[in-house]
Amino acid sequence: MLIKFRQDISDNEAHWSAAEIEMGRYTGTFKTGQGEAFSECHTDFCKHLATYLKQQQDRIDYDYIAKQIEQAFANINTLAKLFPEQERSVIQSIYSRYESERTTFNFINFNYTDTLDKCIALIKSNQSVLGSHRSGSTIYNHRIGEVQHVHGTLESQMVFGVNDESQIAKPDIFECDFGDIYEASFIKKQANENYRENTDSKAYNLLKSSQLIYVYGMSIGETDSLWWERICEWLAANSYHHLIIYKHSMPHFRLLGTEHLICERKTRNEIMDYSAYTKDQLKSLGPRIHVTGENPFGKLNGVADKTKSPVEIFLDAANEAASSLNNGNKELLEAYQTATK
Length: 341
Prior knowledge:
This protein has helices at about 1-10, 20-25, 35-55, 65-75, 85-95, 115-125, 180-185, 190-195, 200-210, 225-235, 260-270, 280, 305, 310-325, 330-340; strands at about 105-110, 130-135, 140, 145-150, 210-215, 240-245, 290. By secondary structure, it is mainly alpha-helical.
């Protein structure tokens, strides 16, 4: 079954670009009661995905790009500047409303890698890059708060699957011994519950306590519809709540700005489609969803290009070895001479 599964992915790469929803459809190729066989395929996919992502994350030398990281994270304090004047003043008014409080940046991470964690660790050593604000005679320094990996990490508690059973083409494959466990591991909220770390509730509490939410690097996908529903509920709960979302493919304003405005409306509608509210109720949500194609983390684009390649890493090692060749290690000297020719 695993061989067939891997071949099917290889033969249908375009479909598997949305891997989670496609795996839900793939259950339709199994027979009733074949939950264990599906679980083996699910586990195999996650293991290979984790191996690949670990190779990618380990390529980054954070000391090497520390300055770019600091410059990029400094921008999260000035998100209002990404927008035209009218929206800018609205977003800025949120900061003004809470000017007598310290600004805390919390993170709900839907990624499996430790990239964000290592960037934040670097920022925590110099939180002054996040800025500050004054209220009366008091200066409030901005700070990093919590980071919640709602989908787990590459090391443990990985959550990879669908939003609910409606996205499983053939639920009866789980009519087998331990079928409830196999199915729960493939439905995101249940998978988190099975880990018993309260990850989902911790992340949800962060969301509910927020005044402004910024979404970056996350598609408006149906396998995470629970979170888009929650964001819509959060927006509806308070007229001062605002959502900012970065849209990578958003056209820039040109002569007329038509394409930009259409993309903006489509994005708002995509998000609001996940809610159960009526059209009249949604009228108050749309204007508080701000869509931008401006990337505040642009300085980290092409980070792999700025990160040392395997050759550069080897040359560093060779240089270090050459500086201490007083031990007469001929092999190291030959390696250095070969690498630097």
